[in-house]
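Task: sequence design from structure.
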């Protein structure tokens, strides 16, 4: 069984989703979903250990060797990503706040968990497969389940947000499919490793250039790269709080992986950055996202919308790491995947606890809750400090590597801008602290049950642990960066 883990980690949640329709009872379905998520997390950690000790893993589906058959290929980058996605799922799925804010009646809640498992299967499939068309298939599975999950918010605006995401997601998916089609037309293969071998002789082809452009734009829409981010604020705001926590912590991370794979594995850094000079487009987009997202977050009156705009800024930091195309820059961008998943997942779960007690995600709803819900509010403060990048938190580690990468390139102004954009985060984080701990209490509430605040603190506590102990995060990220740049994984 162990040699099939590369495929089993995708197949398990995919087959587990329809089981939810048979179990139906909410408690049973929730337990089943949690067991599947934990099993996937164990498999992901096992696969990461094998990659770190034995190198890349290649698994041929059905015994058909690549490039004719579909290959699942795990290296330092996507094994690292599998750990991120499955760990977030294993923490969020059992959360006591997971059904907070959903419009589903008691008899229909099993559908919610089925959609969660399908979303997890799609994310893991994108991360694992070495076949480009297979990527598109799993992108669609992820997208369709995400549209469904977002539409389950209690507010009718959730339907509008889901429809807006559907339109943008369909455009992004279409661009991806067109790009894949162009590359297949020229090379006759869909295997990523095989494409990497065949494309160097064809890079002057207009069809190849068009395929690259379509893949980059489609992936950027899925990642919500500025200015293609319009779908993200409404989607995160109107979705049920736990859905926002799961999607914010995982979906954009997988989209980032897809862009990195296209740039470094399929086309190569030399072509993308030396021939096309794409960094001169990616760099200003990343900087614009860092400032536009942070400035927009300052003026938000809804906690979830504030965190959504903060996510746009954090995506900017990750794209900045891509544009550097150096080991330090890529290490900063990749480790920020892990750190941001912990920060934003924990913060959205904290908001879910606020919604559970007050019935609102308004910023004013947390007024005085520092005294009423000290455990939840403490988690929100620490998550905010990590967003700023305060030393001792995980957010500081990734921003440090981004600054080092900028200085290595001689981009001194970029290093200064990274610091300035982090200071903007101080404004909206302090605003939350001021309202929660110095405001007048407007709700007579008590702390949420332990099964609601414990998942929040597992993620937020991780930002403190990995802010001091960086061997796992930075070590894995630097190995992935070297592998992408053509070094030893």
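Answer:
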């Amino acid at each position: 069984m162990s040699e099939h883990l590369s495929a089993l980690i995708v197949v398990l949640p995919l087959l587990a989703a329809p089981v939810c329709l048979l179990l139906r009872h909410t408690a049973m379905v929730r337990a089943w979903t949690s067991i599947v998520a934990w099993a996937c997390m164990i498999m992901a950690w096992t696969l990461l250990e094998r990659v770190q000790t034995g190198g890349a893993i290649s698994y041929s589906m059905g015994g058909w060797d690549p490039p004719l058959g579909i290959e699942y290929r795990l290296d330092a980058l996507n094994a690292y990503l599998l750990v991120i996605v499955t760990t977030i799922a294993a923490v969020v799925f059992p959360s006591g706040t997971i059904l907070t804010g959903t419009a589903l009646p008691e008899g229909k809640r099993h559908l919610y968990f089925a959609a969660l498992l399908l979303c997890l299967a799609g994310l893991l499939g994108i991360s694992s497969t070495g076949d480009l068309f297979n990527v598109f298939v799993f992108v669609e599975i992820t997208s369709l389940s995400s549209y469904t999950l977002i539409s389950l918010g209690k507010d009718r605006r959730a339907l509008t947000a889901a429809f807006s995401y559907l339109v943008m997601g369909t455009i992004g998916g279409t661009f991806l499919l067109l790009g894949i089609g162009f590359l297949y037309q020229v090379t006759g293969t869909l295997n990523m490793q095989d494409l990497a071998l065949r494309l160097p002789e064809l890079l002057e082809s207009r069809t190849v250039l068009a395929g690259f452009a379509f893949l980059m734009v489609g992936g950027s829409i899925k990642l919500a790269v500025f200015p293609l981010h319009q779908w993200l604020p409404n989607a995160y705001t109107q979705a049920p709080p736990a859905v926002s926590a799961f999607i914010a912590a995982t979906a954009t991370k997988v989209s980032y992986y897809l862009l990195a794979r296209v740039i470094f594995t399929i086309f190569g850094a030399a072509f993308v950055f030396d021939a096309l000079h794409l960094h001169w487009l990616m760099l200003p987009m990343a900087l614009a996202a860092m400032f536009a997202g942070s400035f927009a977050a300052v003026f938000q009156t809804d906690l979830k919308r504030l965190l959504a705009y903060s996510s746009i800024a954090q995506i900017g930091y990750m794209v900045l790491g891509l544009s550097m195309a150096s080991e330090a820059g890529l290490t900063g961008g990749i480790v920020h995947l892990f750190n941001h998943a912990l920060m934003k997942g924990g913060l959205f779960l904290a908001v879910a606890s606020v919604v559970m007690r007050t019935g609102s995600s308004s910023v004013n709803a947390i007024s005085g809750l520092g005294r009423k819900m000290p455990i939840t509010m403490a988690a929100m403060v620490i998550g905010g400090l990590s967003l700023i990048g305060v030393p001792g938190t995980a957010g500081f580690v990734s921003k440090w590597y981004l600054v080092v990468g900028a200085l290595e390139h001689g981009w001194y102004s970029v290093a200064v801008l990274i610091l300035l954009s982090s200071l903007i985060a101080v404004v909206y984080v302090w605003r939350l602290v001021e309202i929660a701990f110095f405001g007048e209490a407007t709700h007579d509430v008590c702390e949420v049950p332990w099964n609601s605040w414990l998942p929040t603190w597992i993620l937020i506590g991780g930002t403190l642990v990995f802010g001091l102990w960086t061997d796992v995060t930075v070590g894995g990220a630097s190995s992935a960066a070297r592998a992408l740049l053509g070094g030893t994984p």
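The mean pLDDT is 88.
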